[in-house]
Amino acid sequence: MSDSELNSTLYIEQTKEWVNKLVIGLNFCPFAKREVQRNSIRYVPCPQKKQKDGVKFITG
After folding, report:
1. Distance from C-alpha of 51 to C-alpha of 6, rounded to nearest angstrom
2. How far apart are CA 48 and CA 34, in angstroms?
3. Percent of the chain surpassing pLDDT 70
4. pTM higher than 0.85, yes or no?
């Protein structure tokens, strides 16, 4: 596994932890827990470094 793939895996795991602790743990979104349990959330690392490029990546 390349360094880039390892970093992507780490970022995804950290994001999942954040969703569980903050979004679900503090009940910011009452629908989030169900979707996490269903495993229906798709996590994709964004390769862009600049915010404006990241927005373009997300919005297509």
Report:
1. 22
2. 30
3. 100
4. no
